[in-house]
Each structure stands twice: as C-alpha cells, then as structure tokens.
Specification:
two-stranded antiparallel ribbon; elongated; about 300 residues; about 10% strand; alpha+beta; single chain
Length: about 300
C-alpha cells in the first residue's frame, strides 16, 4: 500500500477526497491574487501550535496522533512506509494536514456545510460522537471493589475450574449380550485395546478404541455421565451402557485439568467481567430514566 493510499484510508471520515492534486509549494508566492481570508471558527487549542492556516491552528499533538494512526495502518511487510523522522513529519504536516484544512476552509467559504446531504451527515456524526462521550462518562463512573471480586470468586469457584479432560478408550457393539460378554472378559484381565480392535463397531476400533483426551460435551449425555463420573478412576472399566450407536464399554486411561484456579489468577478476569456487567446495568438505568421523562412517539403504521 502506497503512503497516499494509507493516508486516504486514515482520513475516510472526512468528506474531502484528494484527486490529482500536486503538492503545495511553500517557497513560492501564489500566482493568483489571494481570496479574502475565510471566516472559520478556530478549534480550542490544547497543545503546542506548530502551524496556522489562515489563523486555523494545528498542534504538535494533532500531528503526532495522526502519524501514530497512519503508522498503525502500514502493512507489516512494508515498514519503510512508516513516518519515523522529523523530516517525514514535516512533509506529512505540509502535504496532508495543511492541504486538508485549505480544502475545509474553501468548502466552508462556498457554503458546502449547508448542503442538505453534508449537513445531515455532519449531524449524524455529531450525534454518534456525543452519544459515545455520554456513555463513556457514565461507564467511567463504574467501580468494582476488591470485596466484590472476592465474593464473586467464592460463589463461583466450581464454575471457574479448568475443564477436566480424560483419556478414554471405547468399545461399541450392537447387542447388549455381546457387550456383557466382553465386559466379563475385560474383568478377567483381557486387553481392552485388543478387544476393541476385534469387536468394536466404532471408527476408533482401528486405534484400539482410543479417543485420546476429551472434554465433557464432545460425545453424548450418557457418555459424559459415565466417563466423567467421580466413581470411575484411571485404569477402571465402566459397566455396559446404551448409546446412539449401540452398547458401550469405556476405560479411563488418564486425567488432566480440573484444577481450581486461585483468586490471584482469576482477579483480572473477574474484575473485567463484573465491570462490564455494572456498566451495562448503568447504561440500562440511564436509558430507563431518560425514557421515563421523555415524550416518545412511534408511528408503527408507517413502517413498511
């Protein structure tokens, strides 16, 4: 992506598009008589002024903010397009920011801000910015205390555990009687993997019934109830149970996960979650209060 294309992407929220314009020549006097200085209300200055265009100030902070945004849009494989030098910043100031303000002032001088489409777009943008700022001011007031985080952790300890995984082998056959016969052979010491290869109808048969490590929810309800039961430990074989594809026998060959995370490990995650919940609640309360005191009319019959 060329530098000009990145700049255009960066500034899409402006209604001014630069098409075929030569760079400004700051070293020569204009060839035509300058027009009367446009009347443009200057913005509130909160930084170091580094340029003025017909009295309209540009600050160092504005320049640095734009360049930071511009650099963030440069493709990773083209770092040479980033602006990192003083000369590059000056070039950007002269040929992008000054150019934009000149166009802005000319547009105002022509009264384009009174164009109905432009005025509507400006009003919509203003509305969005003010709504964003209002919500930000309200949600910034939200505070989550350490005691709230501790209380939540103590209430939700079980839900905050790491999911347990178990390494499982299975044998699946069509008839219950065959399953019971195989279970007897297993209890007598025959190898689970060998019997699975010989008799299981499941796709896992070729791997000796090995399903690897799985979590609850990867099979079906009855499977989880048996496989993740506290009564079934590593090395043990289950009783026969029915599933969608026949009759099952499983063996637990390993366990991992399921540990309880400490409060310190969960602190930031819990705080973020509680903050979000409280922010949402505050916004809903604000909407409720405003709606209660507002006159709202909705003409549903006019909606096609």
């Amino acid at each position: 992506m060329k530098k000009r294309e990145i700049v255009l992407s960066l500034l899409i929220f402006f209604v001014f598009f630069f098409l075929g314009c030569d760079k400004l020549n700051f070293g020569e006097k204009p060839a035509v008589k300058p027009k009367k200085e446009p009347v443009v209300s200057a913005p509130i200055v909160t930084g170091t002024v580094i340029a003025k265009v017909n009295g309209y100030p540009i600050t160092l902070e504005d320049l640095n903010e734009e360049i930071e945004r511009y650099n963030s849009m440069v493709p990773k494989d083209k770092p040479e397009l980033k602006i990192t030098t003083r000369e590059g910043k000056i070039d950007y100031l002269k040929n992008e920011m000054v150019r934009r303000i000149l166009f802005y002032q000319e547009a105002l001088d022509r009264g384009l801000d009174r164009n109905p489409d432009v005025a509507k777009a400006l009003e919509k943008t203003k509305q969005q910015l003010l709504v964003y700022q209002l919500i930000k001011e309200e949600t910034d007031k939200v505070n989550v205390t350490p005691s709230e985080i501790e209380d939540y952790y103590n209430r939700a300890k079980e839900q905050l555990k790491e999911p347990e995984e178990r390494k499982i082998r299975e044998i699946v056959v069509i008839s219950e009687s065959q399953a019971k016969d195989l279970l007897i052979r297993l209890l007598q010491g025959e190898d689970f993997a060998s019997l699975a290869r010989q008799y299981s109808k499941a796709p896992s048969a070729e791997k000796g019934g090995d399903l690897g490590f799985i979590k609850p929810g990867q099979k079906f309800k009855e499977f989880d109830e048996v496989a993740f039961s506290d009564a079934l430990d590593v090395g043990q074989v289950s009783s026969v149970f029915k599933g969608p594809d026949g009759y099952y026998i499983i063996k637990i060959e390993g366990k991992r996960g399921g540990q309880q995370k400490s409060l310190s490990e969960m602190w930031d995650d819990i705080k973020r979650g509680l903050t979000f919940i409280k922010q949402q609640k505050r916004v809903e309360e604000l909407v409720g209060n405003l709606s209660h005191n507002a006159k709202i009319e909705i003409m549903e019959d006019k909606i096609q």
